[in-house]
């Protein structure tokens, strides 16, 4: 009986050893100081902060828009109305803007994202719409004195292939229910306003 008991105990120990070894193998290894520093840097880069909360508090929601656009700086602008539905995405890291309306008498749809990059310390904006096949990317800063976001970008001129057009954009916060977007393009060394959008928060 003792022999059988010892044999059964030995067999049980042998069967348990692979599972024990597997648990030991899958246990997370201790990180080196360099790895810990890397992990902390990534966590800091990925964590939304006050800049992100500010963007959401200022721009989240549904907005009615009045767009003015200039094809010729010396001529009166064309006027269109539209709507922008701005929603928070990616856990409060970015704001998505779904724009619908008219542009030059044609149905117009646009999709944009705005956010703040913890790594570069810059605000960014991306834009694409149904009147182009490209992605427009701009980067900028915020001036608390004027309550304005200022962005810079470059645009390829479809009328002059190979020509780069410098672009400057501003978004000024008038109050919690109003904001004004302006876009300026520099052509032949002269900057002119090409677009203005007045935003009014929908009730």
Automatic annotation (TrEMBL):
Keywords: Signal. Pfam families: DUF1579. Residues 1-21 form the signal peptide. InterPro entries: DUF1579. This is DUF1579 domain-containing protein. It comes from Agrilutibacter niabensis.
């Amino acid at each position: 009986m003792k022999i059988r008991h010892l044999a059964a105990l030995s067999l049980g120990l042998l069967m348990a050893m692979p599972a024990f070894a597997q648990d030991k193998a899958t246990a997370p290894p201790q990180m080196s100081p360099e790895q810990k520093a890397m992990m902390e840097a990534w966590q800091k880069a990925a964590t939304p902060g006050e800049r992100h909360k500010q963007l959401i508090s200022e721009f989240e929601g549904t907005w009615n828009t009045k767009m003015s656009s200039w094809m010729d700086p010396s001529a009166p602008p064309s006027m269109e109305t539209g709507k922008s539905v701005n929603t928070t995405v990616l856990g409060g890291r970015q704001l998505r803007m779904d724009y619908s309306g008219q542009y030059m008498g044609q149905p117009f749809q646009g999709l944009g994202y705005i956010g703040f990059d913890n790594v570069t310390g810059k605000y960014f904006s991306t834009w694409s719409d149904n009147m182009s096949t490209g992605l427009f990317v701009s980067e900028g800063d915020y001036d608390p004195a004027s309550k304005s976001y200022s962005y810079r970008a470059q645009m390829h001129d479809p009328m002059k292939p190979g020509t780069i057009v410098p672009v400057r954009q501003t978004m000024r916060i008038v109050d919690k229910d109003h904001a004004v977007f302006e876009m300026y393009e520099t052509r032949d060394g002269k900057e002119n306003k090409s677009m203005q959008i007045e935003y009014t928060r929908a009730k």
